[in-house]
User: Fold these one by one.
Assistant:
Number 1:
Amino acid sequence: MKFYSILFLVALVIAGCTKTNDTNPVTIASEVEPGTAKDGGGGGGNNSGFIQSVLSGNASRLISTYRDSILVSFTQAAPPEGWTLILTSSDPAAVQVPSTYPVPPGAFVVYPPVTAGTVINAKNVTISVKLFSQTKTTVLKVFPLTATFPAPLLQSPGNGANINFRILVTFDWNDNNNAYYSQLQISIDNAFTNLITDVLLNESIWAQSYFNGTGTRYWRVRFVDASGNAGPWSQVRSFVERPQ
């Protein structure tokens, strides 16, 4: 254990020297996530430095006027003096971030806050995180609180399609940029009183392979905004589950 402790201290000294010699000035500043994001990606940008990744997480699907956070991870623990991140938003009216965010000593992960402004139409916003000369980015999509939708246009499967039992079926319909969810229903009857499936989806596509036996099944879709208000249903299509 003493041997590993010595190695760790040497690594900290080297890291401290690198930080001291960096040409970018560091100022310690003070500055804090409902968002929704199911999952989020990020981490684009210059890979040479201490930032390992910048992930949007729940904030990848940020609702107008809501507050959430992104995740910034590092390749090593912050040194005793800590670090200061510099954050920028590609659209400050749509997403606000603190101009600086402190990384405490020993931290491997921090969660800088993001706050959505009021948007009428959904838009993508790039958040950049800088430490010394390294910059990484992540993209958030900000959705309006309320929206008005047309009925979705169903694309596949075609009406009356014959499908072998337990074969994977892909349900597809058109996108709507302001839709926070799409609601898909599949039923045994065309009045949708005997539902097999009733799901809220982030995407305008969904795959399934089981529909409660064989026979005719019916499906429809509608768009839902970030406040839970739904638009009109699409036309109803049917497909036939045939025994193998």
Number 2:
Amino acid sequence: MDSFTPIIYKWYKQNKRDLPWRGTTDPYKIWISEIILQQTRIAQGLSYYNRFIGMFPTVTDLANADEDSILKTWQGLGYYTRARNVHFTAKEIVHKYNGVFPGDIKTILSLKGIGEYTAAAIASIAFDLPLAAVDGNIYRLLSRYFGISTPIDTAKGKTEIHEIATGLLPSGNYGFHNEALMEFGALQCAPKSPNCQNCPLISSCYAANHNISGKIPVKSKKVKKTARYFYYFFVESENKILLEKRTENDIWKNLYQFPMIESQNELSDAEILNIDLSFIAMENLVFKSVGEKKKHVLSHQTIYARCISLETGHPEFNHSKFIQINKKDIYKFAVPKLLERFYINLNLPEK
């Protein structure tokens, strides 16, 4: 164990990626980077981070922004609760802490959307507090290196890894330590097909020496996915189209979409053409086309969606649930990535 962290530190200095949130102790930027990367690979998250910080460079800018602009900036990242939470927390920091990000772990943990890992990452990197920030990369690295077979998705497994991680903390420079271990786990001790033969820890790694790197870490629970069936209606009237806002406590809350119904089961083309369209509240709707089915996979559900094009010569409608916009303005609205995939086959102006 004595050589474990020195080897990783040396590796980190030689191999770490040049990322914009490294080399800063600004807790706001560290917080935003950690939230973006919670469910997102760095390759994808980097451009979102740069765009987000460009739009909202300070916690005050974020607090003062409207939710629609935040969701639009976040569009495509998924897990939109993260975006709504950072907005809520930014307003709390401005109003309750005078715009200064709190520097103690108890207060950081009290902020909405910030769990133990994110709080420890912010506290150690921004404020050099002696806390082990244990993300998925470190769970994997420590499980393999020490041969931990306890499932990491159990309370016992999490406690076991956290105790090891805390025991590895140095006497200072805690942010560097945590970032080094996370980077080593991300790049060297990768989730799939780790390059064990070229790993500087191979001589002392339990998993490598027992040829079980592909079996560790252990997880006890399998995610059960449910299937959902969405049918979107692209309603054209001259240069106008309809949108609605998802306000229920479900996926994509507060994002926009075309008028939509959800079915308990997949509908045939004939069943789609017989859907009662009275919910749209427009006269003389004419079916134009029924789009191909698209599959969209989320963490706990798989959505199968189709987009049905309709047209009417009567632009007036009376329905508080929908808004009517110019086609060219569609790109101003934050929509689910799934809905964006239908744009190419619809009669929309170029972006």
Number 3:
Amino acid sequence: MGGTRFVGKALVTRLLSRGHSLTLFTRGNNPVPDGVEHLIGDRLTEDGLILLKGRRFDAIVDTSGRSLNHTKDVIKYTGSPKERLLYVSSAGVYSTSNHFPIDEAHGVDPQSRHLGKYETESWLKEKKIPFTSFRPTYIYGPGNYNSIESWF
């Protein structure tokens, strides 16, 4: 889900270099590399997601999900991935702390703008869908489109 901007683009490059077959589901706003199956649709609409109906994947990498419904809707059409769902969450789910390091047992901020990502992780656990979630803070590097440099 995604794969044509920043983190997703870097991941696609890495996966292709290792010989993986990829299907990208995007809105079609950016080019995709040669040799990649490209499904163009909007994950926020039933008409867009219908392209996923009946498709099964070994793994689903979701770099663009922001709410529980984003992931629920994908799984509704594809079923659980055969192996694992890789989910890009956010460290923004955690409540404020002066104690570091923070780990998965740390409290969640119920007012976080990233709460939907935490709800997604909880739902994946509840449904026993094998997943790995990454909770990065700020990601910096080539292709960055967020002006986060001032934070450093």
